[in-house]
Amino acid sequence: MRLVDQLSALMVLALGAGVLTWLSRVYALRRQLLDHPGERRSHVVATPRGGGIAIVLTVLAATLLGALRYPEAAPHLGVFGTGLGLVAGIGWWDDHRPLPAMHRLLVHMLASALLAGVVWEVSRSPVQAVLVFLVATALINLWNFMDGINGIASSQALIAALALAMVTPAPFGLLAIAVAAGCLGFLPFNFPRARIFMGDVGSGALGYLMAALVGLASMTTYINWLLLLMPLSAFIVDAGFTLTSRMLSGQRWMDPHTQHVYQRAVKAGWSHVRVTGVYILLGLAGAAVLVLSVRLPPPQQAGVAIAWGAVLALLWGVVRVRLRNF
User: Fold this and answer.
1) What is the model's pTM?
2) Domain residue spans in the chain?
């Protein structure tokens, strides 16, 4: 597909996602699906939730179109779409009627297993399949943890999807464009002022989609896994180190909290726009690391990724110490 066709598809899908987001806001207001302010939340006004369904429907529509255009990829796209539906479905249910964390986790693991099955079928590599399963299960929950202030989760997914679209061949690269379009249509409703939150239906789905895009890129290119994760590195470092510190201190890691660096920064007086802006810059830097390093041999790609991760880990530690009282 030519670049102009890709840009046209991006804009058409983004417009559709915007309309769907507006409709989801109307629905949420009628059903009184609201996130209310609280001690463990970073917003101060009751806000509708569930807008992430627009991203999900946009990607599912693109998946169907991709299956029609590329019949040879239809079975794999069908399994991918089924996994997305499972994650989004349990999130939609949880947005309406909260579910036990273990119930959600089991569905997340089932969806991750389906995605791993696609990778196994294509690559015949058990290592690749296991990696996809672990990464998908982790990212589904990680994106939920990191979806706490205006624009942060959708902007990171937008940047990562565009970066992965640049390095992944069709038809799977087109899925990355669809994810970017869904986020682009949703983002104006969530940033800089939040008129709707994406809810669990959106945050969990974005985590699944990020894992899927990384997994699909890994099986269709020779790019090192660690390098493919670079556009997600800011989220991985903040969530990974924060959850590790909670577990080491004996806290229940799955309980809601406001201990991530981005949450501490908001509590310290930074605006949502400022904090999200910092993470956007970090996401763009990680995306640049990926795009500029793809021509290196895989061992060197891994070295670049490890070096960038070490820089982010050091930055996380410094900021965490400075914000330790918040």
Assistant:
1) 0.93
2) 3-322
